[in-house]
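Continuing the batch. This is chain 6 of the set; chains 1 through 5 are on the previous pages. Same settings as before, nothing changed between runs. Recording input and output for traceability.
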Amino acid sequence: MAIQKYIFLLLAVFLYVEQVSASTDKTITWYKPEFSALSIVNGSDVGKGYLDQIENYLTQEIDGFDH
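Output for chain 6:
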């Protein structure tokens, strides 16, 4: 149960800190800083962090926007 709360908290922080911006041209820009284990932007494990997986899920679920 604690892991779900932790993931929810990370998602909330991710959406706040990552400065998701949606404009009238229906583009969402995701800011991706390097936070090891949470967001991996360099190396052989690019895109395999916890927040990377959440972003990938949200990107698939939010239709009608360019990401």
